[in-house]
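Most newcomers find our protein records easier to grasp once they have seen one. A learned vocabulary of local backbone shapes supplies the integers on the structure line. Here is such a record, shown just as it appears in the course material:
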Amino acid sequence: MRTGTVSGSPTRPGTQRCLAEAHEGWTPRDAREHAATDRATAAIQLNLGRFDIAESFAASAVRTYEEAHGRGRISAKLLLAEVHVRAGESRGLLLARQAIEAVSTLQSVAIRQQRLVPLITALEARPGNEAKEIARIAHQVAATRV
């Protein structure tokens, strides 16, 4: 993984300090709350272009949701896949396929579409035919009624 900027947005020095202060002294009520916080932190770090940190928090969220059988598991898997795809990691395509498969189990077309947009965008921005094919599959899953 690498660290940098995403979409031309520079890393803001105060953001890291604010995140650290928000976590300091805070104890989650349960595993699901911990996972939700990790997922939110991963999303912020991803938007800052801090792929290593985002990956760590997203992976933690996936593990915690799976252990707690939490409802946010699919969103965390999508985020983890997006981190790897945007970072250009080869594992990203496998994670993207797994996340898309998980999304396909959701009943609501609107929810599937909403949750897949960031991953589809990342896949379409990535070079290579395999990424484009996975993006096509994601579009299909997003539009298919269950």
Remarks:
- The two ends are 36 Å apart (CA to CA).
- Helices lie at 13-23, 31-47, 51-68, 73-86, 91-103, 109-125, 129-143.
- Confidence is low (pLDDT under 50) at residues 3-11.
- Residues 51-68 form the longest helix (18 residues).
